Amino acid sequence: MDPIQFTDLMELADIIAERLGNPITIEDQHHQVVAYSIHGETPDPVRIETIMKRKVPETVLARFWKAGVIQSLMHSDQPVRIPSIQELGLGNRIAISIRKGTEVLGYIWVQETGRPLVEEDYGILRWAARLAMPRLLQKRDRYIKKEENKKALFWQILSGNCSLDEIHQEAATLSIYFPPYMVVVAGEIKCKENQWLSIQKELDYLLENLKETTPFSFLPLWVYDEKQCIILGGAKKMDGLEEEAGSFLMWLNNRFSVGKGIQIKTGGFGS
Questions:
Q1: Which domains does the chain have, with CATH numbers?
Q2: Most distant CA pair in the chain, distance
Q3: Residue 69: its pLDDT value, please?
Q4: SS (H, E, C) the chain
């Protein structure tokens, strides 16, 4: 399709919505809303809440993960159709990931209120995703730098190569909250070598975007050491923290082992 001029992603969102005859949202890789079009006639409750809070509700993301929607978007550059989920207040959706190569930078979501999309519309979505990519790439570069610093801090904590004051100072710089009680959990991922990169991406997605669904009250840091995932979890009370650690490993297992030949081997934990 022909290139177009737009000043920002909000203008691009309106252009896409006009061509598709349906309202859309553009989100970054963590489902934070970066742009949205006018609503149309009947925005559903999920669209309204997403725009009001500037982020997709975790209950919706957890349902999408369980249904395999997120995994499809992570590993494919094609549009994905999502049927309505009435109990969540979600109408029919079409989504596509915004990518640079195999890396997901964000998503475009279409709520089918004006008309159902047809195959020809999918070309418009792919075109729109390519147009949005450079703008989200800038946002991703800032995020990557912060993530590198967070991982470096966690390795310093694990190795004991920094003082408590240095830890808290760097944590404040990175906007990391450490709860009063914390535990380190290590789980070994059993998978084929050619699966590891995609599994690591899925682990990052879960730990970043579905924190509220985990047994831990807080989940500030995690790193990888070969095929081992090392995670810092925490709570405001000491009671039950070890049980939460064990439940957390089961939580991970339940999201990877079914039908994939992947296992989170029970790991150790220590405060």
A1: 9-142 (3.30.450.40), 177-270 (3.30.70.100)
A2: 61
A3: 96
A4: CCCCCCCCHHHHHHHHHHHHCCCEEEEECCCEEEEECCCCCCCCHHHHHHHHHCECCHHHHHHHHHHCHHHHHHHCCCCEEECCEHHHCECCEEEEEEEECCEEEEEEEEECCCCCCCHHHHHHHHHHHHHHHHHHHHHHHHHHHHHHHHHHHHHHHHHCCCCHHHHHHHHHHCCCCCCCEEEEEEEEEECCHHHHHHHHHHHHHHHHHCHHHCCCCEEEEEEEECCEEEEEEEECCCCCHHHHHHHHHHHHHHHHCCCCCCEEECCCEEC
Output 31-40 pairs: Cβ under 8 A, ≥24 positions apart. 31/55, 31/56, 31/61, 31/107, 31/209, 34/9, 34/106, 34/135, 34/136, 34/139, 35/8, 35/9, 35/10, 36/10, 37/13, 38/14, 40/111, 40/113, 40/114
CA distance 128 to 174: 33
* Angle between the N-to-C axes of helices 119-159 and 164-173, in degrees from 0 to 180, rounded to the nearest 10: 160
pLDDT at 36 over 90: yes
pLDDT exceeds cutoff 90 at 143 = no
Q: What is the pLDDT of residue 243?
A: 84
Q: Please report, as a single letter, which amino acid is at residue 259.
A: G
User: pLDDT value at position 259?
Assistant: 45
Range with the poorest average pLDDT among 6-15, 111-120, 185-194? 185-194
CB-based contact 88:60 (threshold 8 Å): yes
Among candidates 178, 191, 161, 164, which has minimal Cα distance to 252? 191
Mean of the per-residue pLDDT values for the chain?
89
Residue 187 vs residue 135, higher pLDDT: 135
